[in-house]
Design goal:
about 475 residues; binds zinc ion; 15 helices; about 45% helix; four-stranded parallel sheet; Rossmann fold; alpha/beta; four-stranded antiparallel sheet; 17 strands
Length: about 475
Protein backbone atom coordinates (compact mmCIF):
# COMPACT_ATOMS: atom_id res chain seq x y z
CA UNK A 1 0.00 0.00 0.00
CA UNK A 2 1.46 3.42 -0.93
CA UNK A 3 2.38 5.78 1.89
CA UNK A 4 2.76 9.53 1.44
CA UNK A 5 3.57 12.48 3.68
CA UNK A 6 0.39 14.46 4.32
CA UNK A 7 1.07 18.17 4.91
CA UNK A 8 -2.22 18.42 6.82
CA UNK A 9 -1.40 15.80 9.49
CA UNK A 10 2.38 16.32 9.16
CA UNK A 11 3.09 12.60 8.98
CA UNK A 12 3.45 9.76 6.53
CA UNK A 13 0.16 7.91 6.11
CA UNK A 14 -1.15 4.85 4.29
CA UNK A 15 -2.98 5.99 1.22
CA UNK A 16 -6.50 4.56 0.95
CA UNK A 17 -8.71 6.20 -1.68
CA UNK A 18 -12.28 7.18 -0.94
CA UNK A 19 -13.63 4.83 -3.61
CA UNK A 20 -11.94 1.42 -3.91
CA UNK A 21 -9.96 0.95 -7.12
CA UNK A 22 -9.98 4.57 -8.21
CA UNK A 23 -8.53 7.85 -7.08
CA UNK A 24 -8.77 11.59 -7.67
CA UNK A 25 -5.89 14.05 -7.75
CA UNK A 26 -5.79 17.80 -8.35
CA UNK A 27 -2.53 19.59 -9.07
CA UNK A 28 -2.35 23.38 -9.26
CA UNK A 29 -1.41 24.26 -12.81
CA UNK A 30 0.47 27.16 -14.36
CA UNK A 31 -0.51 30.83 -14.45
CA UNK A 32 0.04 31.35 -18.16
CA UNK A 33 1.48 34.87 -18.20
CA UNK A 34 5.14 33.98 -18.75
CA UNK A 35 7.46 31.01 -19.25
CA UNK A 36 7.51 28.40 -16.49
CA UNK A 37 10.91 28.35 -14.78
CA UNK A 38 12.68 25.10 -14.00
CA UNK A 39 11.76 25.51 -10.32
CA UNK A 40 8.05 25.40 -11.29
CA UNK A 41 8.77 22.43 -13.51
CA UNK A 42 10.34 20.48 -10.65
CA UNK A 43 6.88 20.40 -9.02
CA UNK A 44 5.25 18.97 -12.17
CA UNK A 45 7.93 16.25 -12.36
CA UNK A 46 7.31 15.09 -8.78
CA UNK A 47 3.55 15.14 -9.38
CA UNK A 48 4.04 13.06 -12.51
CA UNK A 49 5.95 10.37 -10.58
CA UNK A 50 3.14 10.39 -8.01
CA UNK A 51 0.49 9.92 -10.72
CA UNK A 52 2.52 7.12 -12.36
CA UNK A 53 2.83 5.39 -8.97
CA UNK A 54 -0.91 5.69 -8.27
CA UNK A 55 -1.72 4.25 -11.68
CA UNK A 56 -0.11 0.95 -10.67
CA UNK A 57 -3.04 0.47 -8.26
CA UNK A 58 -5.93 2.71 -9.27
CA UNK A 59 -7.83 4.26 -12.09
CA UNK A 60 -6.59 7.85 -11.70
CA UNK A 61 -8.57 10.97 -12.56
CA UNK A 62 -6.07 13.82 -12.62
CA UNK A 63 -7.08 17.46 -12.98
CA UNK A 64 -4.62 20.30 -13.55
CA UNK A 65 -6.06 23.78 -13.98
CA UNK A 66 -4.82 26.56 -16.21
CA UNK A 67 -4.96 29.95 -14.47
CA UNK A 68 -5.66 32.49 -17.19
CA UNK A 69 -7.19 35.25 -15.07
CA UNK A 70 -7.24 36.57 -11.51
CA UNK A 71 -3.74 35.70 -10.22
CA UNK A 72 -2.54 39.01 -8.87
CA UNK A 73 1.09 40.08 -8.65
CA UNK A 74 0.95 39.34 -4.92
CA UNK A 75 -0.55 36.06 -3.72
CA UNK A 76 -2.22 38.13 -0.96
CA UNK A 77 -4.72 39.54 -3.49
CA UNK A 78 -3.02 42.85 -4.01
CA UNK A 79 -1.36 44.36 -7.04
CA UNK A 80 -2.39 43.93 -10.65
CA UNK A 81 -3.55 40.87 -12.56
CA UNK A 82 -0.46 39.07 -13.88
CA UNK A 83 -2.19 38.40 -17.21
CA UNK A 84 -3.01 42.05 -17.83
CA UNK A 85 0.45 43.27 -16.77
CA UNK A 86 2.13 40.83 -19.16
CA UNK A 87 -0.22 41.68 -21.99
CA UNK A 88 1.00 45.29 -21.72
CA UNK A 89 4.64 44.15 -21.38
CA UNK A 90 4.42 42.09 -24.57
CA UNK A 91 3.47 44.95 -26.83
CA UNK A 92 -0.25 44.97 -26.10
CA UNK A 93 -1.29 41.55 -27.37
CA UNK A 94 -4.59 40.59 -25.81
CA UNK A 95 -4.63 38.75 -22.49
CA UNK A 96 -6.34 35.78 -24.12
CA UNK A 97 -3.72 35.56 -26.88
CA UNK A 98 -1.03 35.83 -24.24
CA UNK A 99 -2.63 32.98 -22.29
CA UNK A 100 -2.72 30.79 -25.41
CA UNK A 101 0.92 31.57 -26.18
CA UNK A 102 2.22 30.60 -22.74
CA UNK A 103 -0.12 27.66 -22.28
CA UNK A 104 1.26 26.24 -25.52
CA UNK A 105 4.81 26.85 -24.31
CA UNK A 106 4.02 25.26 -20.97
CA UNK A 107 2.72 22.06 -22.55
CA UNK A 108 5.78 21.90 -24.82
CA UNK A 109 7.92 21.77 -21.67
CA UNK A 110 5.51 19.44 -19.89
CA UNK A 111 5.70 16.98 -22.83
CA UNK A 112 9.46 17.32 -23.23
CA UNK A 113 9.79 16.32 -19.56
CA UNK A 114 7.63 13.21 -20.25
CA UNK A 115 4.90 14.36 -17.82
CA UNK A 116 1.69 12.46 -18.53
CA UNK A 117 -1.18 14.58 -19.79
CA UNK A 118 -3.89 15.02 -17.10
CA UNK A 119 -7.46 13.75 -17.54
CA UNK A 120 -8.77 17.37 -17.52
CA UNK A 121 -7.06 20.75 -17.87
CA UNK A 122 -9.84 23.28 -17.12
CA UNK A 123 -9.32 27.00 -17.73
CA UNK A 124 -10.37 29.56 -15.12
CA UNK A 125 -11.99 31.80 -17.74
CA UNK A 126 -14.30 28.92 -18.75
CA UNK A 127 -15.54 28.33 -15.20
CA UNK A 128 -16.81 31.74 -14.17
CA UNK A 129 -20.34 30.38 -13.64
CA UNK A 130 -19.12 27.70 -11.20
CA UNK A 131 -17.16 30.32 -9.23
CA UNK A 132 -20.20 32.61 -8.98
CA UNK A 133 -22.32 29.68 -7.73
CA UNK A 134 -19.75 28.83 -5.06
CA UNK A 135 -19.55 32.42 -3.83
CA UNK A 136 -23.34 32.62 -3.72
CA UNK A 137 -23.33 29.63 -1.34
CA UNK A 138 -20.62 31.22 0.84
CA UNK A 139 -22.59 34.48 0.89
CA UNK A 140 -25.77 32.67 1.91
CA UNK A 141 -23.94 30.92 4.74
CA UNK A 142 -22.55 34.23 6.02
CA UNK A 143 -18.86 33.77 5.18
CA UNK A 144 -18.51 36.83 2.95
CA UNK A 145 -18.52 40.62 3.22
CA UNK A 146 -18.25 43.44 0.75
CA UNK A 147 -15.58 46.14 0.58
CA UNK A 148 -15.12 48.90 -1.96
CA UNK A 149 -12.92 46.65 -4.11
CA UNK A 150 -14.52 43.24 -3.87
CA UNK A 151 -16.26 40.41 -2.08
CA UNK A 152 -14.07 39.03 0.71
CA UNK A 153 -14.01 35.83 2.74
CA UNK A 154 -14.15 36.34 6.50
CA UNK A 155 -11.55 33.86 7.80
CA UNK A 156 -12.64 34.36 11.44
CA UNK A 157 -15.87 32.49 10.58
CA UNK A 158 -13.90 29.33 9.74
CA UNK A 159 -12.53 28.00 13.05
CA UNK A 160 -9.82 25.70 11.66
CA UNK A 161 -8.45 28.37 9.29
CA UNK A 162 -4.68 27.97 8.81
CA UNK A 163 -4.49 24.34 10.02
CA UNK A 164 -2.66 23.23 6.88
CA UNK A 165 0.22 25.63 7.34
CA UNK A 166 0.63 25.69 11.12
CA UNK A 167 3.62 27.76 12.12
CA UNK A 168 4.64 28.86 8.65
CA UNK A 169 1.16 30.26 8.21
CA UNK A 170 1.82 32.81 10.93
CA UNK A 171 4.94 33.87 8.99
CA UNK A 172 2.90 34.10 5.79
CA UNK A 173 0.39 36.35 7.48
CA UNK A 174 3.09 38.61 8.82
CA UNK A 175 4.43 38.96 5.30
CA UNK A 176 0.90 39.71 4.11
CA UNK A 177 0.34 42.34 6.74
CA UNK A 178 3.25 44.38 5.42
CA UNK A 179 1.42 44.86 2.15
CA UNK A 180 -0.95 47.80 2.00
CA UNK A 181 -4.60 47.13 1.54
CA UNK A 182 -7.61 49.35 1.59
CA UNK A 183 -8.09 48.99 5.34
CA UNK A 184 -11.57 47.63 4.84
CA UNK A 185 -10.49 44.04 5.30
CA UNK A 186 -11.63 42.79 8.69
CA UNK A 187 -8.64 40.49 9.25
CA UNK A 188 -5.22 40.29 7.64
CA UNK A 189 -5.90 36.74 6.49
CA UNK A 190 -9.22 37.59 4.78
CA UNK A 191 -8.99 37.24 1.03
CA UNK A 192 -10.83 38.26 -2.12
CA UNK A 193 -13.31 35.92 -3.74
CA UNK A 194 -14.25 38.47 -6.41
CA UNK A 195 -12.63 41.76 -7.23
CA UNK A 196 -14.59 44.65 -8.68
CA UNK A 197 -13.20 46.02 -11.90
CA UNK A 198 -11.54 49.38 -11.25
CA UNK A 199 -13.79 52.33 -12.13
CA UNK A 200 -11.05 54.33 -13.86
CA UNK A 201 -9.96 51.74 -16.42
CA UNK A 202 -11.43 48.93 -18.45
CA UNK A 203 -10.05 45.46 -17.84
CA UNK A 204 -9.69 43.03 -20.74
CA UNK A 205 -11.14 40.18 -18.71
CA UNK A 206 -14.25 40.88 -16.64
CA UNK A 207 -17.68 39.37 -16.24
CA UNK A 208 -21.11 40.43 -14.99
CA UNK A 209 -22.10 38.88 -11.66
CA UNK A 210 -24.67 39.45 -8.89
CA UNK A 211 -22.12 41.88 -7.40
CA UNK A 212 -21.44 43.92 -10.53
CA UNK A 213 -18.68 43.71 -13.14
CA UNK A 214 -15.95 41.60 -11.60
CA UNK A 215 -13.16 39.15 -12.05
CA UNK A 216 -12.38 36.15 -9.86
CA UNK A 217 -9.79 35.82 -7.12
CA UNK A 218 -7.13 33.18 -7.74
CA UNK A 219 -8.08 30.85 -4.86
CA UNK A 220 -11.77 30.44 -5.77
CA UNK A 221 -10.73 29.16 -9.19
CA UNK A 222 -9.06 26.06 -7.81
CA UNK A 223 -11.92 25.29 -5.39
CA UNK A 224 -14.55 25.62 -8.13
CA UNK A 225 -12.68 23.63 -10.76
CA UNK A 226 -11.39 20.85 -8.50
CA UNK A 227 -14.84 20.17 -7.02
CA UNK A 228 -16.58 20.36 -10.40
CA UNK A 229 -14.42 17.59 -11.88
CA UNK A 230 -13.55 15.52 -8.79
CA UNK A 231 -16.42 15.96 -6.32
CA UNK A 232 -16.60 17.69 -2.93
CA UNK A 233 -13.87 15.53 -1.37
CA UNK A 234 -10.63 14.88 -3.27
CA UNK A 235 -8.20 12.08 -2.44
CA UNK A 236 -5.05 14.11 -3.15
CA UNK A 237 -4.24 17.76 -3.82
CA UNK A 238 -0.69 18.76 -4.76
CA UNK A 239 1.34 21.84 -5.45
CA UNK A 240 4.56 23.63 -4.61
CA UNK A 241 5.36 24.30 -0.94
CA UNK A 242 4.86 28.03 -1.61
CA UNK A 243 1.11 27.37 -1.95
CA UNK A 244 0.65 26.02 1.58
CA UNK A 245 0.34 29.22 3.59
CA UNK A 246 -2.12 31.15 1.46
CA UNK A 247 -3.46 29.51 -1.70
CA UNK A 248 -4.20 26.05 -0.34
CA UNK A 249 -5.18 27.35 3.08
CA UNK A 250 -7.78 29.52 1.36
CA UNK A 251 -8.97 26.72 -0.90
CA UNK A 252 -9.75 24.63 2.20
CA UNK A 253 -11.59 27.52 3.88
CA UNK A 254 -13.78 28.20 0.83
CA UNK A 255 -14.53 24.61 -0.10
CA UNK A 256 -15.27 23.25 3.37
CA UNK A 257 -17.38 26.27 4.34
CA UNK A 258 -19.45 25.75 1.19
CA UNK A 259 -19.92 21.97 1.30
CA UNK A 260 -19.58 21.19 5.03
CA UNK A 261 -17.40 18.21 4.00
CA UNK A 262 -13.65 17.58 4.17
CA UNK A 263 -12.13 19.04 0.98
CA UNK A 264 -8.92 17.05 0.58
CA UNK A 265 -7.87 13.83 2.30
CA UNK A 266 -4.16 14.10 1.57
CA UNK A 267 -2.14 17.22 0.77
CA UNK A 268 1.24 16.60 -0.86
CA UNK A 269 3.70 19.43 -1.49
CA UNK A 270 6.98 19.63 -3.39
CA UNK A 271 9.92 21.66 -2.09
CA UNK A 272 11.68 24.47 -3.94
CA UNK A 273 14.49 24.38 -6.39
CA UNK A 274 17.00 26.89 -5.11
CA UNK A 275 20.02 28.67 -6.45
CA UNK A 276 23.06 29.34 -4.28
CA UNK A 277 21.69 32.92 -4.18
CA UNK A 278 18.24 31.81 -2.96
CA UNK A 279 14.86 30.71 -4.34
CA UNK A 280 14.39 30.85 -8.10
CA UNK A 281 11.71 33.41 -8.88
CA UNK A 282 10.38 35.41 -11.76
CA UNK A 283 9.97 38.57 -9.71
CA UNK A 284 13.67 38.63 -8.77
CA UNK A 285 14.66 37.97 -12.39
CA UNK A 286 16.67 34.91 -11.33
CA UNK A 287 14.96 32.26 -13.34
CA UNK A 288 16.02 29.65 -15.84
CA UNK A 289 13.71 28.12 -18.41
CA UNK A 290 13.89 24.69 -20.03
CA UNK A 291 14.72 26.45 -23.31
CA UNK A 292 17.76 28.03 -21.68
CA UNK A 293 18.96 24.55 -20.70
CA UNK A 294 18.32 23.27 -24.23
CA UNK A 295 20.34 26.12 -25.68
CA UNK A 296 23.25 25.06 -23.50
CA UNK A 297 23.07 21.56 -25.01
CA UNK A 298 21.08 19.74 -22.32
CA UNK A 299 18.16 17.44 -22.97
CA UNK A 300 15.03 18.17 -20.86
CA UNK A 301 15.31 14.62 -19.53
CA UNK A 302 18.76 15.45 -18.09
CA UNK A 303 16.88 17.91 -15.89
CA UNK A 304 14.24 15.30 -15.04
CA UNK A 305 17.02 12.91 -13.97
CA UNK A 306 18.55 15.66 -11.81
CA UNK A 307 15.19 16.19 -10.07
CA UNK A 308 14.70 12.47 -9.46
CA UNK A 309 18.06 12.32 -7.69
CA UNK A 310 16.66 14.42 -4.82
CA UNK A 311 13.63 13.59 -2.67
CA UNK A 312 10.70 15.86 -3.57
CA UNK A 313 10.38 17.09 0.02
CA UNK A 314 13.97 18.38 0.19
CA UNK A 315 15.18 21.60 -1.35
CA UNK A 316 17.33 20.99 -4.39
CA UNK A 317 20.15 23.40 -5.08
CA UNK A 318 20.55 23.83 -8.81
CA UNK A 319 23.98 24.15 -10.41
CA UNK A 320 25.29 23.42 -13.88
CA UNK A 321 27.82 21.03 -12.30
CA UNK A 322 25.00 18.93 -10.88
CA UNK A 323 23.14 19.10 -14.20
CA UNK A 324 26.32 17.93 -15.98
CA UNK A 325 26.55 15.06 -13.54
CA UNK A 326 22.90 14.11 -14.20
CA UNK A 327 23.44 14.33 -17.95
CA UNK A 328 26.54 12.11 -17.87
CA UNK A 329 24.91 9.59 -15.54
CA UNK A 330 21.85 9.34 -17.78
CA UNK A 331 24.03 8.96 -20.86
CA UNK A 332 26.06 6.26 -19.13
CA UNK A 333 22.83 4.45 -18.21
CA UNK A 334 21.58 4.63 -21.80
CA UNK A 335 24.90 3.31 -23.13
CA UNK A 336 24.62 0.32 -20.82
CA UNK A 337 21.04 -0.27 -21.99
CA UNK A 338 22.19 -0.09 -25.64
CA UNK A 339 24.82 -2.74 -24.85
CA UNK A 340 22.22 -4.99 -23.15
CA UNK A 341 20.10 -4.72 -26.29
CA UNK A 342 22.99 -6.15 -28.32
CA UNK A 343 23.48 -8.96 -25.80
CA UNK A 344 19.84 -9.92 -25.28
CA UNK A 345 18.52 -13.33 -26.40
CA UNK A 346 14.79 -13.03 -25.69
CA UNK A 347 14.77 -15.40 -22.68
CA UNK A 348 14.35 -14.28 -19.05
CA UNK A 349 16.92 -16.17 -16.98
CA UNK A 350 15.82 -15.60 -13.38
CA UNK A 351 12.14 -14.65 -13.19
CA UNK A 352 12.11 -14.73 -9.40
CA UNK A 353 15.01 -12.31 -9.01
CA UNK A 354 13.32 -10.07 -11.57
CA UNK A 355 10.04 -10.03 -9.63
CA UNK A 356 11.96 -9.30 -6.41
CA UNK A 357 13.83 -6.34 -7.83
CA UNK A 358 10.62 -4.95 -9.35
CA UNK A 359 8.95 -5.22 -5.94
CA UNK A 360 11.93 -3.46 -4.28
CA UNK A 361 11.73 -0.67 -6.81
CA UNK A 362 7.98 -0.23 -6.46
CA UNK A 363 8.32 -0.18 -2.66
CA UNK A 364 10.68 2.82 -2.99
CA UNK A 365 8.23 4.69 -5.22
CA UNK A 366 5.39 3.91 -2.82
CA UNK A 367 7.39 4.99 0.21
CA UNK A 368 6.58 8.69 -0.18
CA UNK A 369 7.98 8.75 -3.74
CA UNK A 370 11.55 7.98 -2.73
CA UNK A 371 13.10 8.45 -6.17
CA UNK A 372 16.76 8.64 -4.99
CA UNK A 373 16.40 5.18 -3.42
CA UNK A 374 14.53 3.87 -6.48
CA UNK A 375 17.41 5.04 -8.70
CA UNK A 376 19.92 3.22 -6.50
CA UNK A 377 17.87 -0.01 -6.83
CA UNK A 378 17.97 0.52 -10.60
CA UNK A 379 21.74 1.05 -10.69
CA UNK A 380 22.43 -1.93 -8.41
CA UNK A 381 20.57 -4.24 -10.77
CA UNK A 382 22.19 -2.69 -13.85
CA UNK A 383 25.63 -3.38 -12.35
CA UNK A 384 24.71 -6.88 -11.06
CA UNK A 385 25.68 -10.08 -12.87
CA UNK A 386 22.03 -10.58 -14.00
CA UNK A 387 21.41 -11.45 -17.67
CA UNK A 388 20.91 -8.69 -20.25
CA UNK A 389 17.33 -9.81 -20.99
CA UNK A 390 16.41 -9.63 -17.29
CA UNK A 391 18.03 -6.21 -16.95
CA UNK A 392 16.09 -4.88 -19.92
CA UNK A 393 12.81 -6.20 -18.52
CA UNK A 394 13.55 -4.42 -15.27
CA UNK A 395 14.58 -1.16 -16.96
CA UNK A 396 11.29 -1.14 -18.87
CA UNK A 397 9.37 -1.61 -15.63
CA UNK A 398 11.38 1.01 -13.71
CA UNK A 399 10.92 3.51 -16.51
CA UNK A 400 7.14 3.23 -16.26
CA UNK A 401 7.66 5.11 -12.95
CA UNK A 402 10.68 7.24 -13.85
CA UNK A 403 9.56 8.43 -17.29
CA UNK A 404 13.11 8.86 -18.63
CA UNK A 405 12.53 7.20 -22.05
CA UNK A 406 15.24 4.71 -21.11
CA UNK A 407 14.29 2.15 -23.78
CA UNK A 408 14.24 4.72 -26.58
CA UNK A 409 17.19 4.79 -28.97
CA UNK A 410 19.27 7.94 -28.65
CA UNK A 411 18.38 10.23 -31.56
CA UNK A 412 21.43 11.49 -33.40
CA UNK A 413 21.94 15.12 -32.54
CA UNK A 414 23.11 17.42 -35.32
CA UNK A 415 26.02 19.81 -35.11
CA UNK A 416 24.89 23.25 -33.89
CA UNK A 417 25.51 26.06 -36.41
CA UNK A 418 27.92 27.98 -34.14
CA UNK A 419 30.01 24.83 -33.65
CA UNK A 420 30.10 24.23 -37.41
CA UNK A 421 31.48 27.75 -37.88
CA UNK A 422 34.21 27.12 -35.28
CA UNK A 423 35.20 23.84 -36.99
CA UNK A 424 35.48 25.63 -40.36
CA UNK A 425 37.58 28.37 -38.78
CA UNK A 426 39.81 25.76 -37.16
CA UNK A 427 40.36 23.95 -40.49
CA UNK A 428 41.43 27.25 -42.03
CA UNK A 429 43.87 27.88 -39.16
CA UNK A 430 45.35 24.40 -39.57
CA UNK A 431 45.87 24.96 -43.32
CA UNK A 432 47.75 28.14 -42.43
CA UNK A 433 49.74 26.19 -39.83
CA UNK A 434 48.41 28.52 -37.12
CA UNK A 435 48.35 25.83 -34.43
CA UNK A 436 47.83 28.20 -31.53
CA UNK A 437 44.52 29.41 -32.97
CA UNK A 438 43.62 25.84 -33.90
CA UNK A 439 44.21 24.64 -30.32
CA UNK A 440 42.23 27.55 -28.90
CA UNK A 441 39.33 26.68 -31.18
CA UNK A 442 39.53 23.02 -30.11
CA UNK A 443 39.24 24.19 -26.48
CA UNK A 444 36.21 26.36 -27.42
CA UNK A 445 34.53 23.36 -29.03
CA UNK A 446 35.24 21.19 -26.00
CA UNK A 447 33.40 23.70 -23.87
CA UNK A 448 30.40 23.00 -26.13
CA UNK A 449 31.03 19.27 -25.44
CA UNK A 450 32.24 18.63 -28.99
CA UNK A 451 35.39 16.60 -29.64
CA UNK A 452 37.25 17.09 -32.93
CA UNK A 453 39.60 14.60 -34.53
CA UNK A 454 41.87 15.41 -37.47
CA UNK A 455 41.89 12.72 -40.16
CA UNK A 456 43.34 12.66 -43.69
CA UNK A 457 39.78 13.13 -44.95
CA UNK A 458 39.26 16.28 -42.84
CA UNK A 459 37.88 17.02 -39.38
CA UNK A 460 35.61 14.50 -37.68
CA UNK A 461 33.53 15.49 -34.70
CA UNK A 462 31.61 13.70 -31.96
CA UNK A 463 29.73 14.59 -28.77
CA UNK A 464 31.82 14.42 -25.63
ZN1 LIG B 1 -4.45 26.20 -7.18
Amino acid sequence: MPRFYNTLTKKKEDFVPLVAGETTIYTCGPTVYNYAHIGNLRTYIFEDILVRTLRKHYKVTHVMNITDVGHLTSDCDTGEDKMEVSSKREGGISASELAKRYECKFFEDFNALNCMYPSFTPHATEHIREMIELIKILEKKGFTYKTSDGIYYDTSKFPSYGALAGKSHIEGLKAGSRIDFSGEKRHTSDFALWKFSPKDCKRQMEWPSPWGICFPGWHIECSAMSMKYLGDTLDIHCGGADHIAIHHTNEIAQSEAATGKPYVRMWIHGEFLILSSGKMSKSSGTFLTLDALRQKGYDPLDYRYLCLGAHYRTQLEFSFDSLDFAKNTLRNLKEKIALFKKQRDGVIKDARALENVKADFQACAEDDINTPKALSVLWDFIKSPAAAEDKLAFVKYADSFLGLSLMKEEAARGLPADAAALIAEREKARKNKDFITSDNLRAELEKMRIIVKDTPAGTEWSWK
